[in-house]
Amino acid sequence: MTQDITGMAAVANIGASPSEIFAALCAGQESRKPLKAFDPDKYRAAYAYEIDDRPEGGGDIPRRATRWLTRVVREAVADAGLGEDLSQVPVLVGTTMREQRSLELWWRDDADVALEDLHFGTALKAAFGASTTYTFANACSATLYALGMATDMIELGMADTVVVAGTDAATESGFGTLDRVQNDIPDALRPFDATHKGMLMGEGAAAVVVQRAGTGSRPVHARVRGVGMNCDAHHATAPDPDGITRAVLDAYRRAGVRAQDIDLVMLHGSGTPLNDATESSVLRRIFDGAGPGPRMTAIKAMTGHTLGGSGLLSLVMAVLAMKEGAVPPVLGLADPIPEAAGLGLVQGPPVSGDLAIAQIDAFGFGGINAVAIVEAAR
Question: For residues 105, 124, 11 and 154, what is the CA-based torsion angle, rounded to 10 degrees?
């Protein structure tokens, strides 16, 4: 069973809408900037992929993740031709940090943050009357987990329309933890390149409206064919190739596709040596003997790692890639790692092609894996 994607919205460091973000990805312009949210003198890493919406004088403000969330939900439901009354529409939110940055500002600077402000459901109810909201804190796979639940809800007859969204703002505790635990400190996020050193944080939000096939009032952007997921709990941080393989094959089974049917892969591509090598090795095995293989790209090279919302942001970009018949490049990819040999990683200018089916990868700490298969609306 497939579900229709009838509304989409996104905001990231490189654009305030899906079309702006996709155009920036295709242009391949460097987007990292010196760290602004926190005192860079405290950390080894000096760069991040932040949204430039802080006060001119510097410093930070609370509830940025919530503001982005309500914005993309509002824009996605408008794109789908729905009103803003979501009292009968479930809203599923994926995130890694929730409003942890607001809590940090309350603790450190006595920012005006009430306990209820830390829950996205509060803002969603105030803005849209949403009475059924769920938050998934499933690390980097959170929004694809939420998408999987949305498709289940529709298939089970629990809803005809579900809004799936994700949001994350950079937190100092998260940034500082990465700064301590990464062996090398990158000055840019460079997925699958031999110079990759690790992950840098990004910020952003994305939302899609998923509806039972044929029930929407607007043209369909794309169709969700299936979502596979698991939690292999292999290691706290190291990805397990077997767990990832099972998630990919489960997605294929649910979607009714084979490896040779995939035209595009939106890679997780976190820029960490272990993730890049593991993801590359898994995909080499899966696509071995599957013809020329799909084109592959990794948008974190320009957006940074947008954490819980990263899977959904990649999905929205996959939909636009299929619509435009163009795959943006992996920024900065000059010397692919040996494990990626033979994969269709896009380097240099965007690559044109007929793209009908896309695979979106999202892998989180603790072996929280999710893979979505999306089909172009033709």
Answer: 140
Structure tokens at 185: 């400190």
Pairing outcome for strands 222-231 and 368-376: antiparallel
Buried b (16+ CB within 10 A) or exposed e, 150-180: bbebbeeeebebbbbbbbbbbbbebbeebbe
The residues near 124 (Cβ < 8 Å, ≥ 6 apart) are 69, 70, 73, 86, 91, 93, 130, 133
Q: Mark 257-296 as b/e (b = at least 16 C-beta within 10 Å).
A: bebebbbbbbbbbbbbbebbbbbbbbbeebbeeeeebbbb
DSSP H or E stretch at residue 3? strand 3-12
345-348: long-range contacts at Cβ-Cβ below 8 A with a sequence spacing of 24 or more? 345/192, 345/296, 345/297, 346/295, 346/296, 346/297
List, for residues 219-240, the tens digit of each pLDDT value: 999 999 999 999 999 988 889 9
Q: Find, among 199, 290, 286, the residue nearest to 244 by Cα.
A: 286
- CATH T-level fold of 3-376: Peroxisomal Thiolase; Chain A, domain 1 (3.40.47)
Q: Where are the domains of the chain?
A: 3-376
Q: Which residues pair with 5 in a beta bridge?
A: 210, 222
User: Residue 125 corresponds to which tokens in the numbers above?
Assistant: 């109810």
Q: What is the pLDDT of residues 113-129, one digit of tens each?
A: 999 999 999 999 999 99
Q: Do 61 and 361 meet the contact criterion of CB atoms below 8 Å apart?
A: no
Q: Alpha-carbon distance 5 to 39, whole Å?
A: 41
What amino acid is encoded at 13 in this protein? N
Other C-beta atoms lying within 10 Å of the C-beta of residue 249:
14
The mean pLDDT value of the chain amounts to 95
Helix (H, G, I), strand (E, B) or coil at 51: coil
Each residue's pLDDT tens digit, 275-292? 999 999 999 999 998 888
What angle is formed at CA 48 by the lines to CA 101 and CA 104, rounded to 5 degrees?
A: 15
- Composition of the chain by helix, strand, coil, percent to 5: 35, 20, 40
